[in-house]
Task: structure prediction
Amino acid sequence: MDREKDLVESLSAQIVEWEAQMDRLKFEADRAPDERKGTYLQELEKLQQKRKEAQAKLQHLGTGESDVGKDLKEGAEDLADDVKSDLRRAILKVK
Result:
C-alpha cells in the first residue's frame, strides 16, 4: 500500500508540474508568430492528451482497487518519461 501511495503522490506532483509548464508553453505559443503558432498548439495538444492519460492512471491508482505491481509502476514511469521528453521537445521548439 505504501508503494501505491508513493506512486500516487509522485504522479500527482508530476501532473502539477506539467500543467505549470504547459501553461508557460501556451503563453509562449500565444505570443509566437502566426506561422509557428499552429505547431506549438499541436505540441500542446499532444501534451494535454498525455496529461489526461496520466490523470486517468492516477485516478485508477487512487481508488485502492489497483495492485501496484511491476507492470503498473513501470507503466506510470514510462508515461512520466514520455511526458517529460515531450515537454522538453516542445520547450525547445518555442525557444
